[in-house]
Request: fold
Amino acid sequence: METVRVSVAAQSAALTAAADEIPATPTVEQRRFVPLSSAEAVIRYWQDFIPSRAGAISIDLLPVVLVLVLMIVNDAMRRDSETLEEAENITAAEMLRAMALYRRMEAAGVMPEPVRSEPVMEPEVVPEPVEEPAAAQVADDTTVTPIDAAQRKRTDGPRPA
Reply:
């Protein structure tokens, strides 16, 4: 019990010393509020405008950026999942049979060709042009009407009938 009394007395002495120091501190001088005119406010705070606008615009555009990132990731995931369509319908028994067959093929030394995910591009065969007689070209010229869309502009008005 004596230790409690000693600690309370020590705390009381510290609080009394702190309270005695308060009147000795100099008084704080109050500042008078002076409103600024619009021109003075612009001159004083013009440097704060650009960072605040940049921060506001970046906060406004952040959801757009997040949606675009999610769209790209979702598209990539869908593209990868389209190639695994058969794997979604396979049973565990079919998978075990396929693995056993693959192991037997490896043991026998028969290795299948790797499956390519990209289609093989075959070279296109370009047929040689066959020359037609000049009479056929003249006949085609009479049935095809040329369109002068490239020479006509929007400001030229309607087409002549």
User: Anything to note?
Assistant: The chain has a mean pLDDT of 80.
